[in-house]
Design brief:
184 residues; mainly alpha; 5 helices; globular
Amino acid sequence: EVLRIQQKSGLYTRLNLTNYYGGLILGLIFVLAFGLRIEGLMYGTVLVQIFAIPLLIRTTMRGVRVGANLLDSSSMATIWAFAWPLTFGNTAFWGLRLSDRFVIEFFRPGIEVGLYSAVYNISDRTINLAVTLFLMSLGPTVANSWETQGRENTERLLARLTRLFLLICLPITVGLTSLALPFI
């Protein structure tokens, strides 16, 4: 998100795509070449993120001062009040996204979990390409509309963007759903 704020959308997109597809590809290599099971997919995701972190830190922290003396207690309280529900929600979402693989592995062989994960990730990433397009453009567009045109025009803009989002993303989702069985 810091990259988006710094108006480095190209790098943000490249890192996101590397994270999404690189984790899947590396995970599949671990599964197919080294015989790992579900943990191979998770290792792939974790390794891609470990390699991305130094690049992210170097890129986002260039020219930024960091220190405890720059924070005051009222700012920290405001940040905490905003962040803790998001942190809880993101942690729950992360657990929900990964827990299905462990449940499936309990009932089915590991090869089926790998197949499920690969197909799930391919469909998820395909939908995320369209969703990311909207998310990256929506924030600045809505903020600009709010600042220049006011609340009523921004509400109309959000309604139009929501319709456009549904017109584009719903057919992708329906198409992936109808092609799931032949694809697998």
